[in-house]
Task: inverse folding
């Protein structure tokens, strides 16, 4: 049995890129908040080192014995934490925009939702394997099987989208849930029903939140001229006047454009100097592109695609259905997170605060990503990939 070393080395490469740009892109934040010069670089490097060791350590375990323990441990512990953190004293919880998303630990803040995504994917893989088979069923039978999962997901929507004010993570989990159910053996009709259900729930959440409505209006202001120019004049009523200008998106696009083909050089980007906030986290792709150019970011994206290819290859060659669905789910979470972030910073869709797997600064995101890859590497020993 051999671990997929190629996947391991590709992930280490992306994590190394993350550490480098945590130094380059955080210059303004360091100066503005009077941090030590290497504050973000040191913290990210430590987390990357821990993550790499964790990833390799997990890869050495036997999935038949360890995977269930880790998967269920993450699922139940993080579900409990997400519910309990709203009742913890303010000294134990870090707030963002009035929402409690991080639990304070000595020298570190933990975001339970990042680890919960891994546990949720494992729970679905384990449960779908027992509840759903390839036998042909009616739509009503499929709905009856999925009904308990829908109730569970509504609880997750409440804990994350409502209590934590984080709709982006729910979108990632919803898309992963629907795709995993389809690959587990549900019908295409159920897939369409699931998509419609998610759109309805998402619409309800958006229209009941003023800041989400304003965010969509801001996005529409940036794209309405292009869209309305190709539509009949009768659609002119869709034009929004006097909405906030999407300055973050404008600066993101300008940073990408400023990078050109070869980039301004490592450390030489200018839009990171106060024009583009959170450039080392949510807008990391724009910041990287400005400094290493389109050719450079294509190389980084190429490595990321190679990681996804290795993960999906392990999934496709795993005879154990739990392993197959779990690795598929991990690949989907990475894919949807990257797509939502990259589409948002380029104004294709409204922007959401989703970390880019491997690349964005953040301890919880990096460690959760490494745990997920470590579990996939664990499974790779059982898959026929050689």
Result:
């Amino acid at each position: 049995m051999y671990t997929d070393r190629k996947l391991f080395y590709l992930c280490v490469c992306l994590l190394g890129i993350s550490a480098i740009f945590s130094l380059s892109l955080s210059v303004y934040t360091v100066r503005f908040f009077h941090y030590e010069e290497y504050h973000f670089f040191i913290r990210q490097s430590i987390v990357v080192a821990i993550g790499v060791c964790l990833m390799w350590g997990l890869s050495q375990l036997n999935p038949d014995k360890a995977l269930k323990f880790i998967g269920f441990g993450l699922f139940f512990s993080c579900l409990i934490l997400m519910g309990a953190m709203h009742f913890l004293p303010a000294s134990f919880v870090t707030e963002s925009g009035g929402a409690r998303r991080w639990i304070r630990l000595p020298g570190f803040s933990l975001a339970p939702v990042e680890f919960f995504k891994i546990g949720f994917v494992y729970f679905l893989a384990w449960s779908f394997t027992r509840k759903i088979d390839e036998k042909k069923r009616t739509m009503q039978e499929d709905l009856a099987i999925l009904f308990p999962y829908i109730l569970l997901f509504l609880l997750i929507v409440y804990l994350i989208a409502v209590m934590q004010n984080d709709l982006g993570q729910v979108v990632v989990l919803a898309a992963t849930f629907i795709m995993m159910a389809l690959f587990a053996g549900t019908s295409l009709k159920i897939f369409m029903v699931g998509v419609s259900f998610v759109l309805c729930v998402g619409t309800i959440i958006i229209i009941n939140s003023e800041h989400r409505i304003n965010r969509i209006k801001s996005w529409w202001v940036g794209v309405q001229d292009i869209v309305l120019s190709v539509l009949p004049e009768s659609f002119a009523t869709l034009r929004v006047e006097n909405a906030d200008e999407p300055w973050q998106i404008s600066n993101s696009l300008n940073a990408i454009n400023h990078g050109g083909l070869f980039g301004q050089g490592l450390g030489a980007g200018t839009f990171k100097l106060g024009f583009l906030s959170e450039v080392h986290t949510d807008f990391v792709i724009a910041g990287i592109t400005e400094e290493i150019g389109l050719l450079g970011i294509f190389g980084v994206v190429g490595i990321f695609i190679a990681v996804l290819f290795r993960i999906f290859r392990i999934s496709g060659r795993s005879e154990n259905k739990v392993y197959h669905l779990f690795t598929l789910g991990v690949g989907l979470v990475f894919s949807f997170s990257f797509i939502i972030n990259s589409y948002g910073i380029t104004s294709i869709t409204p922007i959401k605060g989703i970390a880019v797997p491997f690349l964005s600064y953040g301890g919880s995101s990096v460690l959760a990503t490494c745990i997920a890859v470590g579990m996939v590497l664990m499974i790779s020993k059982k898959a026929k990939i050689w």
Remarks:
- Residues 284-316 form the longest helix (33 residues).
- Residues 99 and 163 are 7 Å apart (CA to CA).
- The first strand starts at residue 93 and ends at 96.
- The mean pLDDT is 87.
